[in-house]
UniProtKB/TrEMBL annotation:
<dbReference type="Pfam" id="PF00754">
    <property type="entry name" value="F5_F8_type_C"/>
</dbReference>
<protein>
    <recommendedName>
        <fullName>F5/8 type C domain-containing protein</fullName>
    </recommendedName>
</protein>
<dbReference type="GO" id="GO:0042073">
    <property type="term" value="P:intraciliary transport"/>
</dbReference>
<dbReference type="InterPro" id="IPR000421">
    <property type="entry name" value="FA58C"/>
</dbReference>
<dbReference type="GO" id="GO:0030992">
    <property type="term" value="C:intraciliary transport particle B"/>
</dbReference>
<dbReference type="InterPro" id="IPR008979">
    <property type="entry name" value="Galactose-bd-like_sf"/>
</dbReference>
<dbReference type="GO" id="GO:0005929">
    <property type="term" value="C:cilium"/>
</dbReference>
<dbReference type="InterPro" id="IPR033558">
    <property type="entry name" value="IFT25"/>
</dbReference>
<feature type="domain" description="F5/8 type C">
    <location>
        <begin position="17"/>
        <end position="124"/>
    </location>
</feature>
Length: 145
């Protein structure tokens, strides 16, 4: 299945509540585990991913450090004027090991908003987000996460 969040597949970060030029939000979509976006030390922090098309999403995966609670919301609209909650979950502290969260879902979305509600420490990072599914029109996808 294709990862529609990847920049090379049309995914874009269209909003981030904070930024540091050393750790820009676009790092979330570059497909690398060793680059990341870092929060500024206050919570909540948000970012929104715009998908190139309306996608039937089957799996959302996040790779991160030090996130305690995260909420993911979706919008099917062209302009992302309103969002609906997909899931909210607590993540276990893993020390110096990356947090990998995989959520099986059955949704349609053009936009996904990720809200980091709290952290295990002062700062948290999002290293990668993967959004796997197929185009709403049924076009098959062949690329893997």
């Amino acid at each position: 299945m294709k990862d529609y969040a990847r920049a090379e597949n049309g995914g874009q970060i269209v909003m981030a509540s904070c930024g540091d030029e050393r750790f820009p939000p676009d790092n979330i979509l570059d497909g690398k585990d060793d680059t990341f976006w870092m929060t500024t030390g206050m919570f909540p922090q948000d970012f929104i991913i715009k998908l190139e098309n309306l996608v039937k999403i089957s799996k959302i995966t996040t790779l991160s450090f030090s996130i305690k609670r995260i909420c993911v919301e979706k919008s099917e609209q062209e302009n992302a004027a309103s969002f609906e909650k997909v899931f909210e979950t607590d993540l276990t502290a893993r020390g110096d090991r990356m947090q990998t969260e995989v959520h099986q879902v059955n949704i349609k979305a053009r936009f996904l908003r990720f809200s980091i509600l709290s952290g295990h420490g002062e700062f948290a990072t999002v290293n990668r987000v993967s959004v796997v599914g197929e185009l709403e029109d049924g076009t098959p996808a062949t690329e893997e996460f």
